[in-house]
Design goal:
The chain has 213 residues and is an alpha/beta fold. Helix content is 36%, strand content 14%. The longest helix has 18 residues.
Amino acid sequence: MAEFARPGAEQWVPDDAGLDGLRAAAPDCRGCELYRDATQVVFGSGPDRARLMLVGEQPGDSEDKAGEPFVGPAGRLLADALAAAGVRAEDAYVTNAVKHFRFEERGKRRLHKSPAVAHIEACHPWLDAEFRTVRPDVVVALGATAARGVLGRTVRVLAERGRVLDERPAVAPEARVVLTVHPSAVLRLRGKPEFDPEFDGLVADLRTAADLL
């Protein structure tokens, strides 16, 4: 197995920069090897002082090509769920725990491959910088990888979802945290009987977060 240098992103994260400064610096990051194969870095998007921050896993194929988070099918499903929960998507700041797309090639297709813990840890300085800059009141972690980035521990998504957790992000102790599933997990059920209840569950979890605002 190949060994990669993963020094972490800290040396590439500018001090006391706003979101524009962070976003401008992110393409130079060499904190892990994922930058080598990805099309581009995909930084967070949304208002500078959003009260709600949504943290996903990593960019997907659509996001990697567009350079924006949550613009693919899972992002559209998330927007629908936010609307159903009474939240305007444009009022939320959206980002990912890992800022580059990790994938494996299958013919001409690039198939999602979950980030390793080492990738989450290497990219964590960027997420910390986003927390310090946006200063959200509520953070929704979308899936286990996102929760690992937000809380620094392994979570049991099905056991812990949908409630306000006791823990807070270390650099944003004022922010309440709600855990739910990643919208891509719901999207995979489209056309199946399980889709509607799973979508409704995602909406309910987002509503729990919205009620804290």
